UniProtKB/TrEMBL annotation:
Keywords: Acyltransferase, Transferase. GO terms for molecular function: acetyl-CoA C-acyltransferase activity. It comes from the Bacteria. Belongs to the thiolase-like superfamily. Thiolase family. Residues 7-273 form the Thiolase N-terminal domain. The lineage of its organism: Bacteria, Pseudomonadati, Pseudomonadota, Alphaproteobacteria, Sphingomonadales. SUPFAM superfamilies: Thiolase-like (SSF53901). NCBIfam families: AcCoA-C-Actrans, PRK06205.1. Residues 283-407 form the Thiolase C-terminal domain. Its EC number is 2.3.1.16. This is Acetyl-CoA C-acyltransferase. The active site is at residues 90, 364, 394. InterPro entries: Thiolase, Thiolase-like, Thiolase_C, Thiolase_N.
Amino acid sequence: MQLRRAAIVSPLRTPVGKFLGALAPLEAGALGAIILKALVERSGIDPERVDDVIFSQGYGSAEAPAIGHWSWLAAGLPLEVPGYQVDRRCGSGLQSVVNAAMMVQTGAADVVVAGGVESMSNVEHYTTDLRQGVRFGDMTLHDRLTRGRLMSQPIERFGVISGMIETAENLAKDYGISREASDAYAVRSHQRAAAAWDEGKFDAQLVPVEIPQRRGDPVVFAKDEGFRADASMESLGALRAIEGKTNPDAVVTAGNASQQNDAASACLVVAEDKLEELGLEPMLWLHGWAAAGCDPSRMGIGPVPAVDRLFTRSGMGWDDIGMVELNEAFAPQVLAVLKGWGWSDDDSRRDMLNVNGSGISLGHPIGATGGRILADMAHEMQRREVRFGLETMCIGGGQGMAAIFERAS
């Protein structure tokens, strides 16, 4: 059987909200419904032609189980369309696109919605103590956000890893990444995001969100909340290292780490031979993808083995790539990955990396990040007439994922 090419159509995203910020009143299922409505309207797809809906979410909840299907129904779209949920942590959004592409390539579907959503502002606290009752003593409530990071790998095998910050500090030590270099990279990210907003680079991909108010008309949320246009070495340098009390050499601060955020993203993944019939215009083709595991205590290095595996499988290399989008979990993590790739401090390839900012400046709404990156990369590849773009991310628990996309026109 010959595989069909999988086209990426109408990649969209909402603006990214801060933790407990503008999007906090909307839970994940509602955010998902908003992006799905917008995708159907802007692409012009007949929703009855959609074969499946795949949504990623890093912090799934019983409030909206199988959130791809839940949000589709909440959007008032056809009952006959099924949907499900996928979780590969930070790689979840890209995985939803890959899953959709595999369905299309193999003929299992012609049109699949792929996307992701996260409302980190609404991630719940929970307990594992009450199923069989508590006769005496205390009950523990876990914050799913922090607990998910602590339990991202089996403690019995790897010991306690306090969270993702610890993994970034490990890489800073392993690769000799300084606080100054980390802050300088973070300033770059914020400045590039601010410049992109000033130049209107996100306009075509943005879906404004109406925030209901207790009184009066809804407030329209139409701009990312997290980037700092005034970021400087002085302002970031004044921040304390998060683990500074226990590690005098710590480099990670609130200013050079990714944020906790709320957002949604989505696109259509369509079989090449159905595009004309459906009146759809592709932006990208999925060219290839790979995932790889790594030491959970150094999870941030995941893009290095993932990209290496992808290049080996595809027969491609850095000379073929014209744009790179990396999720920016932490500045020292990014700099360690660049060293792992063999990029020097003055490597010209750095000019094609995260050209409009990324997780440090724009935010990292876990399940929506892959789609946010894809939307930005797709539009930037069109502007720059880049043929091949690479999307890659590190993944909590010790993984990396990468995919190559080809510009369609």
